[in-house]
Specification:
The complex is a heterodimer of chains A (about 120) and B (about 110). Chain A contains no helices and eleven strands. Chain A is an all-beta fold. In chain A, strands 2, 4, 5, 6, 9, 10 and 11 form a seven-stranded mixed beta sheet that branches. In chain A, strands 1-3-8-7 form a four-stranded antiparallel beta sheet, with no helix packed on it. In chain B, strands 2, 4, 5, 9, 10 and 11 form a six-stranded mixed beta sheet that branches. Chain B is globular and about 40 Å long. The termini of chain B are far apart. At the A-B interface, strand 5, strand 9 and strand 10 of A face strand 4 and strand 5 of B.
């Protein structure tokens, strides 16, 4: 399975500011995703991070609020822009295994609290 | 639309078997997954089953799939305190996008 790391692991931010979350994978992967897990809730897909092109966003999520970069096959960033307390969540990146495309592995998550 | 439902909470004694249930609505689901999330941690893929199977066993874990009723279960044999976590059921049509249930919190008491 892929080893995924995220930075920061947690942060406390003021409303109106922005935070960029990094996701690093130990091998090249084609498919990489960003999910949000709001307190006590399940995971919701934000977008698919596409290498070399714009991310594909799910309904309810927009690029201005959650810009995503994917400069290569091992790295991606998610920015949470102009934050409000409602953005307090755990943000997780995930990748699909190259050898077993039906397995999706998750990073440890970034726990964000917005005051 | 796609929907995955789970019971929210399960409490068992150490050494007993745990059974966590899940129902889904999308009949075109191809793969069904179980993930484990320990406190403060990310999601760990426990196991998954292809929709043309009705059972999969992996050590202490047994997954049963009733495709007709769209019902999935995860049985953990000889449950240990280290199994205490939130267990998420998820489904996919094979395009990598996962739809998750809200998770079942399993509490194992000594």
């Amino acid at each position: 399975s892929a080893v995924i790391s995220q930075k920061p692991s947690r942060d406390i931010c003021q409303r109106g500011t922005s935070l960029t979350i990094q996701c690093q994978v130990d091998s090249q992967v084609t498919m990489m995703f960003w999910y949000r897990q709001q307190p006590g809730q399940s995971l919701t897909l934000i977008a698919t991070a596409n290498q070399g092109s714009e991310a594909t966003y799910e309904s309810g999520f927009v690029i201005d609020k959650f810009p995503i970069s994917r400069p290569n096959l091992t790295f991606s960033t998610l920015t949470v822009s102009n934050m409000s307390p409602e953005d307090s969540s755990i943000y997780l990146c995930s990748v699909v295994g190259e050898a077993t495309v039906h397995e999706q592995f998750f990073g440890p998550g970034t726990r964000l609290t917005v005051l | 639309g796609e929907d995955v439902e789970q019971s929210l909470f399960l409490s068992v004694r150490e050494g007993d078997s745990s059974v966590i249930n899940c129902t889904y609505t999308d009949s075109s689901s191809t793969y069904l997954y179980w993930y484990k999330q320990e406190p403060g941690a990310g999601l760990q893929l426990l196991t998954y089953i292809f929709s043309n199977m009705d059972m999969k066993q992996d050590q202490r874990l047994t997954v049963l799939l009733n495709k007709k009723d769209k019902h999935l279960s995860l049985r953990i044999a000889d449950t240990q305190t280290g199994d205490s976590a939130i267990y998420f059921c998820a489904e996919s049509m094979g395009y990598s996008t996962l739809t998750f249930g809200k998770g079942t919190m399993l509490l194992v008491s000594p």
